[in-house]
Amino acid sequence: MIAYLTRRLFHTVLVVLAISIIIFFSIRLTGDPVSVMFSAGEPSKEAIAEVRTALGLDKPLYVQYGIFLKGIVTLDFGESFRSGTPVIGLIFERLGATLVLALGGIIVAVLIAFPVGIISAVKRGTPVDFFGRIFSLIGISFPNFWLGIMLILIFAVNLKWLPSSGFDGLSSLILPSITLGMILSGILARLIRSSMLEVMNQQYMSTARSKGISEWSVIIKHGFRNALLPTITFLGLQFGSLLGGTVIVEQVFSWPGIGRLIIDAINQRDYPVIQGGVIFLAIIMVVVNLIVDLSYTLIDPRIKAGRGGKS
Length: 311
Description:
By secondary structure, the chain is mostly helical. Helices cover about 80% and strands about 0% of the residues. It contains 14 helices and no strands. Helix 1 packs antiparallel against helix 13, helix 5 runs parallel beside helix 13 and helix 12 packs antiparallel against helix 13.
């Protein structure tokens, strides 16, 4: 286990390093941030040079990257070009909203996908299974922005039941969570159905039935638990992805999260905020990925034994 954890940590460092190189050099292809700051007038060359020096943009790229790399280790991403506020402070200020939204999307997806996937597998080949698969296909096909706009038109504009934007209490979380969760639920329901079908006819399922255990107890306690491993993997990876993939939903619902912070920073060419936001989300994603892998041992002890033997 120690050897496995060491390898995973090493791979994590390599992933973060690769992302840092990509984001650092790619955003510099978008143009000079100083030109955006002086977009309203015609500054002198001296003024432009003074601002570039103040922002550290006059240094060679390898020096700027070294400073950025050091900041990743210390979680010091510098200060925003626009506001002068420490980037890590801006990220933590928005992190709560993004975490809440991602968690809300996961909860909606689980509440929908688990019963749909399980029932579709149990009722395989029946009209119930057919409608379950149709639901999954529809869920996967919905574009985030379209579904979000439709929910706003129906429940916020016409019915006036829920707020259309902002982050102010539980009611404002419902529509963006449904927008995120619906698409995820379609994919998750298909995964659960496939996993359940693989375990439904296994020997241990027949053994449990022969002991007189009720069918649904067999399905939930034995079948679903063994089908849960790929589901846990998917949910873990999707939670990490949702943290960075809420950008469209945050824009539609004016949600004050990290995704919207990064989008605003891109429009303003605010390099430190872009770099810090992307790297921060990348670190969260690889850490979640690592936690998901380690959680396998809690679900299936055989995996722990196998890793223990290798290490």
